Backbone:
């Protein structure tokens, strides 16, 4: 896949065009390094990562069968990171009852000196719509840190329902689920490109 290939796009009525493209672990590493080591990305747990560490991490993801990373664009410029994974194979193995059609998700909004009102909500809405654009996706599963109250509020805004805490090796996480129907009810969107 080319990093110029658009895999999904949608237009937000207030904030414009959002799109998702493949991530290239080499050409995107410097950009990602600035994002994942920023103080606002503390819950990403890569604060002390070097540029080679970031390259290695995303090369590992690029080679993985059950984990994929993408760059999100706003008005054509890189603005967020999206990861999708199979929670029955990674991250949550043995921690919950995985179902066919479950997709795990992580997202990270790039730091900005000029934040836009509603931007992070538009990003998570785009990420979720992109995941549900795949007809095989029945439910999105997330496992943010229990202390990440900002992301819990965003998750609930797009339809996630918390199931309770689970202990992962690196953190106490709040396991939450969002079905296609819950997403559509919360946002009025379907997974189709809009």
Residues:
């Amino acid at each position: 896949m080319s990093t110029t290939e658009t895999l999904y796009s949608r237009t937000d009525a207030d904030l414009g065009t959002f799109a998702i493209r493949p991530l290239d672990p080499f050409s995107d590493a410097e950009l990602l390094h600035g994002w994942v080591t920023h103080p606002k990305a503390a819950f990403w747990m890569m604060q002390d990562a070097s540029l080679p560490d970031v390259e290695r991490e995303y090369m590992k993801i690029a080679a993985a069968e059950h984990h994929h990373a993408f760059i999100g664009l706003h008005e054509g410029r890189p603005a967020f990171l999206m990861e999708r994974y199979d929670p029955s194979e990674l991250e949550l193995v043995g921690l919950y009852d995985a179902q066919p059609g479950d997709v795990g998700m992580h997202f990270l909004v790039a730091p900005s000196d000029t934040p836009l009102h509603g931007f992070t909500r538009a990003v998570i809405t785009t990420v979720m719509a992109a995941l549900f654009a795949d007809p095989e996706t029945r439910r999105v599963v997330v496992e943010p840190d229990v202390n990440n109250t900002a992301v819990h509020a965003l998750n609930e805004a797009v339809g996630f329902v918390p199931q309770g805490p689970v202990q992962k090796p690196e953190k106490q996480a709040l396991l939450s689920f969002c079905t296609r129907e819950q997403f559509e009810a919360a946002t009025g969107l379907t997974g189709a490109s809009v």
